[in-house]
């Protein structure tokens, strides 16, 4: 079973006003229907009453604490565990409102959010979506709003054996170079920026450096370790650098918040990836 929260949210987090939707758009309603059709949908009693009828071709489950509440075409649950029991192993969409989103976001695997590019007047909000907990996996820009799909980030790993077993090295396309500049040129989007007293170091695609007339050094390949490494992990960087040094491969390692990134000589990229796979598979 996967649990997906689906909502349309203003820049200020507003989803509802006076018991009604804070924003309406026919394309968005069509997408909502397409995604939820055939699946169980879970909603709070107030959202059900604001829609005014069960959504067709979906199992409608309504949460209420009122013991005798009922409505034609709706199944009633008096708690979230009771609602999940009604769903069984099927994929569930939670369709609101504010109270029910807040109560279920910690159980959710996915979020389908329509981000509306304006503040909306209203009184009901979607809970915060912390970037540390959620990864944007698809963004579809439309006129005045975007459809964004989120997936829950896996728990960060700090145990060295688990980290090594899950390295998943991924080689990015193309060649990269290190450059130094006094300030980052506007419109430039380097992979890495390090600001030092002496100037700024950038790692950027070679073509971009060439276009900007920058002199690049250390032509390199960029490898991302897809393991969700915790910032408290001990030994990952040392293990990776040691494994590569056994093959005479130098590397620069940048620890990002979500993943680690390696820069190795461009002509040794395939050997580096092979060495990292071997390190991962040799981990007990
Ligand atoms: N923009 C969007 O995508 C979107 C989507 C949906 C809704 N909305 C808007 O959101 C607003 C409604 O949201 P809301 O926060 O006011 O209400 P809501 O979440 O729809 O419903 C809250 C009600 O659900 C029941 N409930 C909640 N948690 C429960 C639990 N754990 N166990 C049993 N019952 C539980 C309670 O009903 P009882 O009071 O009966 O006990 C509670 O009063 C409306 O303005 C609506 O238009 C917007």
Can you describe what's shown?
With 284 residues, this protein is of the alpha/beta class. The strands form three sheets. Strands 6-5-4-7-1-8-11-10 form an eight-stranded mixed sheet, sandwiched between helices. Strands 12, 13, 14, 15, 16, 17 and 18 form a seven-stranded antiparallel sheet that branches. The protein has two domains: 150 residues, Dihydrofolate Reductase, subunit A; 123 residues, VC0802-like. The chain starts with a strand and ends with a helix. α7 packs across α8. NADP nicotinamide-adenine-dinucleotide phosphate binds next to β1, β2, β3, β4 and α2.
Topology of this protein?
Blueprint: E1 3-9, E2 14-17, E3 20-21, H1 26-36, E4 41-44, H2 45-51, E5 60-63, E6 74-77, H3 80-87, E7 92-94, H4 98-104, E8 110-116, E9 124-125, E10 134-141, E11 145-152, H5 160-165, E12 169-171, E13 176-181, E14 192-196, E15 199-205, H6 206-211, E16 217-225, H7 236-245, E17 252-255, E18 260-265, H8 269-282
Parallel strand pairs: 1-7, 1-8, 4-5, 4-7, 5-6
Antiparallel strand pairs: 2-3, 2-9, 8-11, 10-11, 12-16, 13-15, 13-16, 14-15, 16-18, 17-18
Helix pairs in contact: 7-8
Bound molecules: NADP nicotinamide-adenine-dinucleotide phosphate.
What would you say about this model in short?
By secondary structure, the protein is of the alpha/beta class. The protein has helices spanning 26-36, 45-51, 80-87, 98-104, 160-165, 206-211, 236-245, 269-282; strands at 3-9, 14-17, 20-21, 41-44, 60-63, 74-77, 92-94, 110-116, 124-125, 134-141, 145-152, 169-171, 176-181, 192-196, 199-205, 217-225, 252-255, 260-265.
């Amino acid at each position: 079973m996967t649990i997906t929260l689906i909502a349309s949210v203003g820049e200020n987090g507003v989803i509802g006003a006076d018991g009604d939707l804070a924003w309406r758009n026919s394309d968005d309603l069509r997408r909502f229907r397409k995604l939820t059709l055939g699946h169980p949908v879970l909603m709070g009693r107030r959202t059900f009453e604001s829609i005014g009828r069960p959504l067709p071709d979906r199992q409608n489950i309504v949460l209420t604490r009122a013991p005798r509440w009922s409505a034609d075409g709706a199944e009633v649950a008096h708690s979230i565990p009771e609602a999940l029991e009604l769903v069984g192993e099927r994929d569930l969409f939670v369709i609101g409102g504010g109270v029910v989103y807040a109560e279920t976001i910690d159980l959710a695997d996915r979020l389908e959010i329509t981000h509306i590019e304006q503040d909306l007047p209203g009184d009901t909000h979607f809970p915060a979506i912390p970037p540390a907990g959620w990864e944007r996996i698809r963004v579809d820009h439309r006129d005045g709003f975007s459809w964004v799909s989120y997936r829950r980030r896996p728990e960060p790993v700090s145990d060295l054996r688990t980290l090594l077993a899950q390295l998943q090295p991924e080689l990015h396309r193309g060649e990269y170079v290190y450059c130094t500049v006094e300030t980052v040129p506007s419109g430039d989007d380097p992979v890495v920026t390090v600001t030092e007293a002496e100037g700024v170091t950038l790692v950027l695609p070679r073509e971009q450096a060439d276009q900007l007339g920058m002199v690049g050094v250390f032509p390199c390949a960029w490898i991302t370790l897809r393991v969700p490494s915790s910032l408290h992990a001990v030994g990952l960087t040392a293990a990776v650098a040691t494994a590569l040094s056994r093959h005479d491969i130098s590397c620069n390692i940048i620890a990002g918040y979500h993943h680690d990134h390696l820069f190795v000589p461009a002509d040794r990229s395939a050997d580096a990836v092979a060495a990292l796979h071997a390190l991962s598979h040799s981990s007990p």
